[in-house]
Amino acid sequence: MTASVSIRNLTRTFATFKALDDVWLDIAAGEFIVLLGPSGCGKTTLLSILGGFLTPTSGTVRINDRDMAGVPPAQRSTTTMFQDYALFPHMRLIDNVGFGLRMRGMDRASRDAKAAGFLDLVGLKPSAQKKPHELSGGQRQRVALARALAVDPDVLLLDEPLGALDLKLRRQMQDELKALQRRVGTTFVHVTHDQEEAMAIADRIVVMNHGRVEDFGPPSDIYMRPKSIFAAGFMGEVNFLSGRVGRVECDAAEVETQIGPIVLPIANFTIARPQAGERVTICIRPEHFRAVDQRSVAGLSEAIVSDVSFFGTHHRCHLAPVASPEKRLVAHMPQSARVAPCDRIALSFDPAGVTALPEVREA
Ligand SMILES: Nc1ncnc2c1ncn2[C@@H]1O[C@H](COP(=O)(O)OP(=O)(O)OP(=O)(O)O)[C@@H](O)[C@H]1O
């Protein structure tokens, strides 16, 4: 089963500290939502309010349009899956998965049949008679998922469910989790501080910082067109340049930056419509820089390569622009590029990958 979730004006304070500050979100039924942000930004607090384990200080949560105020966890159509899985060590997998059904009074034959079906869904039906200690970390994680889904929640709340796994297994489980969510169609709200994990699994990502929602959208939108400096920086490596808007035409505007003038489509500005003289912060992802033949570039600064590392798919270069040598840029050059420290290169960029945000002074 599945449900929509609507969060309005949600605030939660602990003494005088605001762990959540005016959060608004609309989640559609069947979406895979990831709450992403650094430690302490309020992800678990939000998940706990959705699950009914914490009450909001103000604001509302509606699940399938039903107000959740005063509804205890057991009477909600949500199930929470915690990082440590909390499997019962003395129980066989079939009994672990059937535990919630037993609590709801389902007879043994029915719950064994249902639990077997969910073990099958996660590829562990042949291990139904085993106990948790006989499984790998990834298999235990799958049992916990089967157990959470067996009670047919409308919304599954997952608090760092892959946090205990090593990186390789984690990537594998991300793919499995996404495929499973597609199959069952349940709304998933998943907490992580791992940006790659969020991008790998989410339909939409909620980027949180200091209890507030900084950005909310599909991974590609947040990566390519972030709505804040924080969201830009949290979604991967990015270069920030300060700039001043110059000439504005109907569909493009020129910005004078520390590395020379650049022309950007108006759609790349997050401000309503740029005005001449306005100060902006330009965000350029490392892969959107290009090293080009000097003759083809108008106005952009050359740069000196200060360091190069080979990353297999690309070279990661540190650059010092000639026009602004105190500034450091990171650029990814193609695998085939011949770049070495002390090289002098001309810089260009792919305008599609550049965003202009209202100015925030660099730290
Ligand atoms: N019961 C509590 N009493 C006081 N402060 C709390 C309580 N629960 C959470 N906080 C504070 O609220 C803030 C948000 O906590 P929360 O656990 O939601 O963060 P998080 O984003 O889930 O972090 P992490 O990724 O480290 O789990 C933190 O500063 C935390 O110290």
Automatic annotation (TrEMBL):
Residue stretches making up the ABC transporter domain: 5-235
GO molecular function, one term: ATP binding
Any Pfam family matching the protein: TOBE_2
PROSITE patterns linked: ABC_TRANSPORTER_1, ABC_TRANSPORTER_2
Protein name: Spermidine/putrescine transport system ATP-binding protein
Species for this entry: Mycoplana azooxidifex
GO-annotated biological processes: putrescine transport
GO cellular component: ATP-binding cassette (ABC) transporter complex
Family label: Belongs to the ABC transporter superfamily.
Keywords: ATP-binding, Nucleotide-binding, Transport
